[in-house]
Amino acid sequence: MATILVFVCMALFFVSSAMSVIDSVHFFQLNSYRFDTHTKWIGQNIAKYMPHAIISVLMLIAVIISATPMFKAVALCVLFLISLPVEKPKKAKKPLVYTPRVKRMLFTCILLTLIALIPTTVKGLTSSHETYPLFTMAVIYTLTPVVILLANLINKPVELSINQYYTNDAKKMLKACPDLKIIGITGSYGKTSVKYYLTTLLKSKYNVLMTPESYNTPMGVVKTIRGSLKATHEIFVCEMGAKWVGDIKELCDIVHPHHGIITSIGPQHLESFKTLDAIKGTKFELADALPVGGMLFLNGDDENIASCKGDRKHISYSLENGDYSAYDISVSERGTTFTVKAPNGETQEFSTKLIGRHNVLNIVGAIAVSHKMGIELKELRSAVRKLEGVPHRLQLSDKGNMTIIDDAYNSNPSGTKAALEALSLFEGYKILVTPGMVELGSKQDELNREFGQNAADVCDYVVLVGHKQAVPIKAGLIDKSYDESKIYIASDINEALGHVYALNSQGKKKIVLLENDLPDNY
Predict the structure, then answer these.
(1) 3-state DSSP call for residue 511?
(2) Are residue 87 and residue 211 in the same domain, yes or no?
(3) What pLDDT shows up at residue 517?
(4) Which of 66, 128, 320, 395 has CB atoms 3.0–4.6 Å from 72's, for a disulfide?
């Protein structure tokens, strides 16, 4: 009878442990497969693992102090049954993507489990000591949240060799296209918008490939090249993201850009960079990688860029006094008109359905590059008019009695100011929905508090998502004597949106700004 219970217990063990491992791999993926980032995240979210830890302790106690194998097996069966709803994966905003790397990691986890379990099971059943496999199952279940780190360590040489193979293959494909012009784009914010705008403008004359969505990591860029680059492409617009010093250099060593754009420098990812100087140095790795004759385009309105550009030869774009400057800017909820002056003194008026002065700056950057690539300003007018909002970056959606300003992709100090400025342009009942900003290191609370202060000047109502992030934003609102009855704190985005839909807007049209949407690891 005890033997049968051991096998029942084993079946429950595999189901419960599999769910625990998959959950852990999901968060490891969200933490970019980085050991240091993930272990720090575990330390910050220890409460998430408390139910697992309590069940694990009870299992270990049961197999150590129980008098008979039968009682041990029954106790573990009951505890594994209790663990099933605990370990069941929760609905995620960004579900686990079963990439080849994830599949290899899961295979290694299974292999490690079998290596530990089979010998003790065989020994226990052949010698009538059923305690051996029961104890092993209890220990393995206890360690499932961290076994993925061991699997990742074991797989690391394989992952590195696979990545290197794909990277070398991408380099060969680029080398086979000697006439292809490569434009690298980096910046703390604005790079994705500039990438989309520039690609649209360049397509009026050239066959252009760009890195899609947010494929701005080495493997994202390599995947784009290997999957999409054709001999007919004339320009490759490559977005370059960074969280660590050296990230931009690594990307440049893969694609070897001919020209580069630095859109901004600010305290984005300050938690990993540690200092603003480290961010500056990393962004200018793009400038340092350009060949002789390569064009470097810089945001002339960014103080951090100005402080470290040195005597580098560059072309600036600006809303004030750049080589390419925009003036006569008129912004309304219906769109924006502005005039651009080129270095040769030529001027041209443009109009776009996009809103906000920050969008004008990004468009001027795209115009500057396109003009230098041989497209006349007047030829760019129709392309600028056709520009679409980048998904989840101040993307407008009219729902009849409600307008959504979707700026949910990401958030940073500069971006929140631009988003609030855009919100202020609309007539109606202005509602902010936000979980705040993250990855800002020691300045996170200070900058979120400032965000709250700025929001108080614009918003009629504020919905904060997540109790932890809400604290400094709410403090900033109260600093400005904001009515606390018009602040609502929701546990998640679904509760927040439900509250917004039910909210009495006093007969006015609701204008809802969705500022940031944090993934499940926040």
Answers:
(1) strand
(2) no
(3) 74
(4) 66
